[in-house]
Amino acid sequence: MQINDSFVINAPQDKVWEFLFDISKLYQCVPGIESAEAMDDKTYRGKLVIKVGPIRSEFGGTVTLTEVEAPNRIAGMLEGDDKSSASSVKATFTGTLTPVDGGTEAAFQVEANLRGRLAQFGGPVITATAKKLTAEFAKNLRAQLE
To answer: What is the pLDDT of residues 109-128, one digit of tens each?
Structure first.
């Protein structure tokens, strides 16, 4: 399943980039993140609590950055699982920051493989949930940076 989205932040690209790499600030903006820690400069572990349809899941997982081109682009992999819903996710992602009039456009592309009970909801429900979380993240990020 592929998920693509973008939003504009009224802040300079360098400021947005710096914020996104401060894990203690960033994770507070991501809806559902209960914990996050840097294992090294390219590996992060955390816990995400998310509700998809009627199922509430607690994913523990790892994000590994495979490309970092400051302040323009990142790419990486994500792996996580939720024991309660017997679900797992593996994904690759890219994110870009592009200067635009009035600020910075943040865009991302995710190619995700979801297995288990959550996968039964299919693309439309997962995509709607992802769009809702992105909108909330963008709102939180704007509150910190604008």
So the answer is: 999 998 988 888 777 888 88
